[in-house]
């Protein structure tokens, strides 16, 4: 068969990236992507092969029974042949048991593929750069991933085994039918082919609405996931109805696409039943005629009918199997695209030198710019951070302070310029190793759900209880943890809703302290603290800076008043750097901040 189709997909795997434009493909298998997906899963391949053998055996057994039925019926006038009857029963039981076993093996294979793909894709998605997550709503990502995996699982558990047993049944049964009565078979095959054409025409109409449905489902999930996660914001603004209204567009679209699918599906079932009835009726009529004219025995007619039923079932369902195959293959294509997509660069690189370099050599930015693609970000930064110094980062909101920290964490690759340690560009060091040497407390006090212990040990899994308690004491959380019913083993709620803002912030500071990094990046970590707690954190930062490089962004100048150096950022550019005293005379923005906060 020659198919001509347009190829302008963007998420094709690079290994097989076709040239854009029109293609002529000769008998291209529809399972190319599925095959590629299971290529690496040896266990599932073995299960699939074994399952196929078992299913074929089951079909062959089931095909023998009509022949025995014919003999049984033709010998009825001499009495019932009990041995033959028992043999037929045994064959049916055997074939059913084998079919069940075969189906189970296919399901096991499907689940093995899904499990491995789940693990691989999660690892790959987590390895994607931060910019990817900036652009993709997390709910949509989750929804697409789950749908794709479901389609693959459904195909291997239902579609694929039916396809294999269907093909074997059709070939075997048609062979036997021809052997029994050529003319009748010819009529039958003709009718079945017409019916298959009709149904696959209908099945082809399912693709577009199914895709549109999944797309809308993705948007819907994304919207509601975000709403559930930020329920306080929504309730405070009494915006519940807005969320419902916004999701109504998607639910309406899902209903619309669902109806398009239903329109096709609802036609398929009755068409199938009517055609089946016609075929059975036709076979009976023609067969009855042959029997009455003594050209066929009663037994042949009955076994012919049994075979017709056996062959009609897979024929009728063929179009839905091939639809499920198409779906699974395009799901596999999507997953492969995820697997092939570039992650953050983390090829093995120099790591040994990193510790000594970061401890003894300055971390420097040379003409570094990072544009988020919207003109915002930081521009032409020249900055040198010397070890064991405390740097304060000040500047108006939106000036680029958090962006500078993101550049240092290597969350984004600078648009231009270089980040380096001593003379070595940061890009020479593996990202994971790099990030292990930096501790970063982000501006928004995000925490992860789970136990307090697990959260604290996130970056320092080996930390002992004594270490944890020491870090908690440093941020004044000892009493809070002691007051919890299960202490360190108590649970943090999702997004830390069972803690105060300041407690969340201090817990994350404790986590950073446990990391034992060389460089500490603190983004507005005192924003949620009272004056007493602020003083404690300020002293903590000062102590830390005696042996580490510390960069602390703060609007509240009181919390960074003992900084060795202050860096002023405005509109993404450094407009001043020096000791607090120097800047007071040299930088008008800093001087204004000091004055506004009446700090002298
Ligand atoms: N992920 C992003 N995508 C696009 N633009 C961004 C992104 N993050 C920040 N920006 C833009 O970059 C600029 C700098 O933002 P940044 O968060 O670095 O400011 P900031 O100095 O930390 O401000 P604040 O004091 O309010 O925390 C802003 O104009 C902001 O809108
Ligand atoms: Mg910020």
UniProtKB/TrEMBL annotation:
It is a multi-pass membrane protein. The keyword Flavoprotein does not apply. One of its GO terms (cellular component) is plasma membrane. InterPro entries: AAA+_ATPase, ABC1_TM_dom, ABC1_TM_sf, ABC_transporter-like_ATP-bd, ABC_transporter-like_CS, P-loop_NTPase, Type_1_exporter. It holds the Pfam family ABC_tran. The keyword Acyltransferase does not apply. Signal peptide: none annotated. One of its GO terms (molecular function) is ATP binding. Its main location: membrane. It is found in: Cell membrane. It comes from the Bacteria. Keywords: ATP-binding, Membrane, Nucleotide-binding, Transmembrane, Transmembrane helix. This is ATP-binding cassette domain-containing protein.
